[in-house]
Design a protein that fits this description.
Strand content: 25-35%
Radius of gyration: 17 Å
Structural class: alpha+beta
Mean pLDDT: 96
Number of strands: 7
Order of helices and strands: EHEEHHHHEEEE
Helix content: 25-40%
Distance between the termini: 17 Å
Low-confidence stretches: none
Length: about 130
């Protein structure tokens, strides 16, 4: 876990690797809960029988499920102390390059791309792989 004392310390880390999270298993129960929360019940995610006959041989996680895991995985890799809040500003480029099959594990690796002063704090841009 990389710990930054404050936002100035983060600014000095531009270009640096922040680390790699632990593995998390994306099981069918997680996929089903995500479908319930979002209303996305597309068969490739929730219909085990139909998905078994698909090219994947099983259900797959929603792309946005795997994307949403980044918030928690990033907290395993780095922390900035003395913040009033930590908010997501958005995504610059997101691609789902491979499906995550039910029961498989994922993890994330983070790197600081930029750290810019913003009207109410710091806009930190990280790369997550």
């Amino acid at each position: 876990m990389r710990v930054f004392a404050n936002v100035d310390a983060v600014k000095r880390a531009v270009g640096e690797e922040l680390g790699t999270s632990d593995w998390v298993t994306v099981d069918q129960a997680m996929i089903d809960r995500f479908a319930e929360a979002t209303g996305d019940f597309q068969w490739i995610h929730v219909d085990r029988v139909r998905a078994a006959a698909s090219p994947f041989g099983t259900t797959i996680a929603h792309g946005f499920l795997t994307l949403s895991l980044l918030a928690g995985l990033s907290q395993e890799c780095y922390r900035v102390d003395h913040l009033a809040a930590r908010l997501n500003y958005g995504c610059n480029k997101v691609r789902f390059t491979a499906p995550v099959l039910s029961g498989k594990r994922v993890r994330a690796h983070f790197k600081v791309l930029s750290a810019e002063d913003a009207p109410q704090g710091l806009r930190l841009t990280t790369q997550a792989t």
